[in-house]
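A.,

Following up on our hallway conversation. Structure tokens first:
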């Protein structure tokens, strides 16, 4: 398991809390910023994480912005990325089990660090269930190909 994280300025503090958790748990990760609270554009950071996950350089991506919405919209533009915006552990488990989500999006203005840490742990601990869900995920891949024609 190899994780890449990023945020924008509105997700900076929550991202730092998640980095602390990953360190505590001994996970391999790369934090690609930003390092200051200066205003930045979330699509730039979504792009970095989405491209790295899509290329197979990382197994899981984590993106934090104010709501998590902009990050999830932007990340899902990249082929092979299945980004899930979650605000509960249940959603994080389902996103992995049913959707094989490979990027977790969180909103710092929506949830606190305790809830977010639980969500990230659930996301990392849950495996894709496969079976009928694999067929459906393949349908999403087919839709990606179709939309590029
Ligand atoms: C930044 O103000 C905010 O728009 C951004 O963090 C995010 O919530 C966008 O979806």
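Then the amino acids I'd put at each of the 149 positions:
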């Amino acid at each position: 398991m190899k994780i890449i994280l990023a945020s924008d300025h509105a997700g900076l503090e929550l991202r730092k809390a998640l980095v602390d958790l990953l360190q505590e748990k001994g996970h391999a990760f790369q934090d690609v910023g930003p390092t200051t609270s200066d205003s930045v554009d979330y699509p730039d950071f979504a792009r970095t994480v989405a491209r790295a996950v899509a290329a197979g350089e990382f197994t899981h991506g984590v993106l934090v912005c104010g709501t998590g919405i902009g990050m999830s919209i932007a990340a899902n533009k990249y082929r092979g990325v299945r980004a899930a915006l979650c605000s509960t552990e249940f959603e994080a488990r389902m996103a992995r089990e049913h959707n094989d989500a490979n990027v977790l999006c969180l909103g710092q203005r929506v949830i606190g660090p305790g809830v977010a840490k639980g969500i990230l742990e659930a996301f990392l601990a849950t495996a894709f269930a496969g079976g009928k869900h694999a067929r459906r995920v393949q349908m999403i891949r087919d839709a990606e190909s179709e939309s590029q024609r």
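The first helix runs from residue 12 to 25. Curious whether your intuition agrees with the design.

B.
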